[in-house]
Each structure stands twice: as structure tokens, then as C-alpha cells.
Amino acid sequence: MLTIQNFINGDFVDPISDEWIDNYCPANGFVYGKIPDSNKNDVQNAYLAASKAFSTWSKTTLEERSNILLKISELLEANLEHFAKAESKDNGKPVKLAASIDIPRAASNFRFFAHAITQFSSESHDSIGFNATNYTLRQPLGVVGCISPWNLPLYLFTWKIAPAIAAGNCVVAKPSEITPVTAYLLGDICNAAGLPKGVLNIIHGKGESTGQAIIEHPEIKAISFTGGTSTGAHIARTAAPMFKKLSLELGGKNPNIIFADCDYDDMLNTTVRSSFSNQGQICLCGSRIYVEAKIYEQFKTDFIAKVKALKVGPPNLDDTDIGALVSKPHMEKVLQYINIAKQENGTVLCGGNQVKPENHEQGYYLEPTVIEVSSNLCRVNQEEIFGPVVTVMSFETETEALQLANAVKYGLSATLWTNNLKRCMRFSQELQTGIVWVNTWMIRDLRTPFGGAKASGVGREGGFEALRFFTEPKNVCIKY
Ligand code: TXE
Which 3 state secondary structure label does DSSP give 315? Predict the structure, then answer.
């Protein structure tokens, strides 16, 4: 049994209440560890450690901060295999995915912000006619809260922590209680890299208690959150009266719009990935597929053949394409949506069932599922399922495709497949999303603004946007 502890002031400690939560292995459904069920006293201790560290950390040179972040990145790379196995076991994702995407990206997050902070600058404004000049100071906020979800555990946890500490803040961070292990392992790496005590504090526990104590802490100045839209709305309601800065990266229901003039094979292979990578549990997955009518039948035949060839199985096997879903309740939620689709007259073209691999019968496995729908208004086309389920639907005209794509409450990302430049430019302007991918999916340049429109969130992460979020701009005006 793996016992996870909180990481406060550079030390690993038990929760004050001595209360614990079971941690499940999605691959076989067994409990394999326990994690702290932290309460507000643990959060307060983490806050006090962070607050004490802040006066020194905020004054360290950029070179010093940058060197420590680079060291963390190097140590993550040196321990890649260990972290990848831990992530796969904790989350259910194929170990080859964790080793090729999750852990390398966590290392890149630290490396990227180690460099970005040395290039971050602010503006000056010469007030002509007033004999005055203004410059903008960008100062760290103080103690900030970072709360992350279970789908890309270390990847998203570090995507928040790295810019926060690079900018000179100290952090109270909470990973998802469903996937706590790699965040726990990160504590050792931070100590080995020489990160001063208290700069990063990692608290484990449930959203409604531990997370709640972070968001309502009066001295935690900002919250960077990734997770569900309803949780994001609750955080906004809680934090707004305290005037906390908020960055919310929430759900998505992203359109994948396919025109007949695209590079067909490239589109087909990428669409399999954008539909089912990480068991469809990525906020950027293209879960609504719209195909131009003249290639619709062909697309269905070819797509379904490829989807049926995907291998569902234990995440530790090298030939597994689709691992386990993250938890039993989540698997049940996804299965429920498949039933809703049937009740709404959707046609399950492939998949739709639970899978029970040998010796893993209690694991949380689902077949990759493709559902044909006739109305964009059905619940499976409007609500975030966040599992290995996509819908397909045909369209006749460009106007119709755009209308279908935009007719949801979410606005995170969109993918467009076409070789028509004018159409590409029109769609890029008109799609109501924070990200538009044309003839590709999931190329991520860490300098770009990342986030969503509408119910997909508020604010942007990535590049200097993240460093702006984690700093307070102050205008200094000097008359001469
Ligand atoms: O997320 P939650 P859940 C979507 C997806 C999924 C749904 C629910 O549709 O099915 O959200 O997933 C913490 N104060 N996404 O329930 O609850 C929680 O402990 C402070 C999209 O797992 O939003 C965890 O650390 N924190 C998504 C984090 O919030 C609170 C990724 C996310 O959990 C809290 C994951 C509170 N009151 C799910 N309540 C994406 N955008 O990538 C919970 N938390």
C-alpha cells in the first residue's frame, strides 16, 4: 500500500486529522494506496510555509529561479520511466502515452518557464508634454493556489506551478484526489533540485474540503484552476467577493469539421487520435465530428474500421491503445451517456460496451464508441462526456457547418479539415473558441495563449499570458 503524504515546507507530513482517502488503480479496480483527507488546518500550515518563503523567494535573481526550474526539469527527465509507470497506474492511461506525452511535457513546462522568465519584460510609456515617464512593474502576487484535474495529472499540475514559481510566487497546490501520485513524487524532485522550503506546498484531499479551503482562504491571492465547468462556476462565486485573480480552464465539447477537400488519410488518422487519445479524457478532444455530406458514408466506413482496430486493454501493456477510464463513477457517467444517446434515437455505429480484459475484470474499460446523431441539440452533442465517445453527423454547406460547430455552450477548441484557404480564414475568424487547429490537432507551442471562450473558461494560460496572470502590474509615474 502506497501512503501519500502532504508536502509542506519541504517535509512530507501526515494530515493533522489522520483521516485518509482510498486511492484506486483503474486498471484492476483495487485500492492500492491512501491519500490524506486534508482539512483547512493542513491548508493553513501550507499557507504559512508559503507565506514565510515568499519574502526570500520573491527576491531571488531570475538566474537562480531559472536554474532551479531547469534542475527540476532535468530530474523529471532522468526519472521519466518511474514517473510514467506511476502516472499510468494511477490514472489508467497507457504507459506508452504517459512516457511519450505526460511526463516529457511536465519536464517541458519547467524548462519552458525557466527560460520564459528570463525574457519576460514590461512596458514603459513616455508621457510627452508632462515631463513624465511611466514604467510598469510586474511583481509576484504572493501566495497563490493551483488546483488541477485527473486527466493529465502531472502535465496540468506543473503547467500551473512552473509559471507561478518562476514569477516569484509561493504556491499551495492541490492535485486531483483521484490521481495524486505523481504530484506526491514531485516533492522529492523539488527538494533534490534545491527549491527552497515552502516555495511549493502540495496538499492532498477532496475538492469540497481541501480544495474549498484553498479557494476561500482570504490570503491566497489567485487561483489557477483546471477542471469541470460547474466547479469553475463555484470557484468564481467563492473567489469573486474576495477579489482574487482567477484563471479557469474548464470543459469543452469541441467540433471536428471535415470538408471533402481535405487530405483524407491525414484527417482520418488524426481524427482517431483526436477522438480517443487518453480514453477521450482530454478537454481538447474533438468529440463532435461533422463531415461534409459527399464524403460522409466513406468517412463512416473508414473511421469505424480504424476505431475497431484500437486495442482496449491494461495500461501497462505496450500494445494497448485505449487503457482504463480514471474511475468507476466516471465510467458509469460515460456509460449513462451512451444510454442517453440510444434514448435520443442516436445509432451506436461501434463500441458502446464495457470491456473486461483477462485478470482485469474489475477495471474501468470501455470500447471506443462512435454514435451517429441526427440533431445537434441532443444531449450527447451538447454536454461534455469526457470519455471514449464521439458523435458523427453530416452537413451540406459551409454555413451549416459553422452554425453546428458554434451551437454549444462551450468554446475551447475546434479542428478544421480543408485545403481551401479562404474557408480556413473565414472559419478561423468565426469559430467561437480559444483555439483553432487547421489540418492538425494538438500541436502545442507553449508560447501560445491557451484557454477557452464561453463556458470553457476565463483567462489564458501559456507563455507570457501565464506570467502576466501570476504577476500584479504596477504603474510607476516619474516626473522629471
Ligand atoms: O472535476 P472537478 P471532476 C470535466 C469532465 C468531468 C467533469 C467532472 O467533464 O467529467 O469535469 O470531473 C477540485 N473547491 N473535466 O469531478 O470536480 C478537485 O478536487 C476547490 C474537465 O473530477 O472539477 C480536482 O482537484 N477545488 C477537465 C479539481 O477541482 C475543487 C478535467 C477538478 O475536479 C472543488 C477534468 C471546490 N469546491 C474534468 N471541487 C478539463 N478542463 O480538462 C472540486 N475541486
Answer: coil
Residue 406's CB is within 10 A of a number of other CB atoms, namely 15
Query: In angstroms, what is the span from residue 182 Cα to ligand 1's centroid?
Result: 17
pTM score: 0.98
| pLDDT score recorded for residue 162 | 98
Q: What is the pLDDT of residues 198-230, one digit of tens each?
A: 999 999 999 999 999 999 999 999 999 999 999
Q: Which three cell numbers, joined as nine digits, stand for 65?
A: 529561479
List residues near ligand 1 (CB under 6 A): 147-151, 174, 176-177, 207-208, 211-212, 215, 226-228, 231, 234-235, 249-251, 283, 384, 386
Nearest CA to ligand 1 atom 25: 176
Residue 364: HSE in the Cβ half-sphere, 13 Å Cα cutoff:
25
Cα–Cα dist 406/431, whole Å:
6
Judge whether 424 counts as a catalytic residue. Answer: no
Ligand 1 centre distance from Cα of residue 396 (Å): 37
Residues 202 and 211: beta-carbon distance below 8 Å: no
In 196-244, alpha helices (H)? 212-215, 229-239
d(CA 386, CA 401): 23
Q: What is the pLDDT of residues 1-10, one digit of tens each?
A: 999 999 999 9
Pick the residue whose CA is nearest to atom 30 on ligand 1.
207
pLDDT in tens, 450-471: 999 999 999 999 999 999 999 9
Å from CA of 33 to ligand 1 middle: 21
Strand-pairing partners, residue 224, are: 146, 247
Q: Which of 177, 249, 367, 384 is catalytic?
A: 249
User: Cα(125)–Cα(135) distance, rounded to whole angstroms?
Assistant: 6
Share of the chain above pLDDT 90, in %: 100
Q: Is the dihedral of CA 437, 438, 441, 447 positive or negative?
A: negative
208 is catalytic: no
